[in-house]
Amino acid sequence: LIQQNNKEVEALAAAFQAFIAQAPPPPPKPVIPTAEYLMEELEEAIFSSVSKRIKHILESIREDVSSMLEKESASLYENLWPKIELILRMVETVARSTDINVATGV
Fold this sequence. Notes:
The protein is mostly helical. It contains two helices and no strands.
């Protein structure tokens, strides 16, 4: 019985030594996700983030353009209205003169 136990211990020791002598298995290769998988996973987050940033930029541009148009409109009105008033007075004067000439036959 002792001899049998010794043989089993020797066999186990030899197996253990053989196991220790083996090179460790290589680490598993990392799984590289495909572009399709990445797009599927990230599309919503990217879209949401870009939309939020663009929305603020577009709102700022809209406010700037609106302000610029208001200033241009006011400036245009201030510059053109006196000239238009002058033309209207001239047209009224000519119209009155024409009415007088038509009435008098001259």
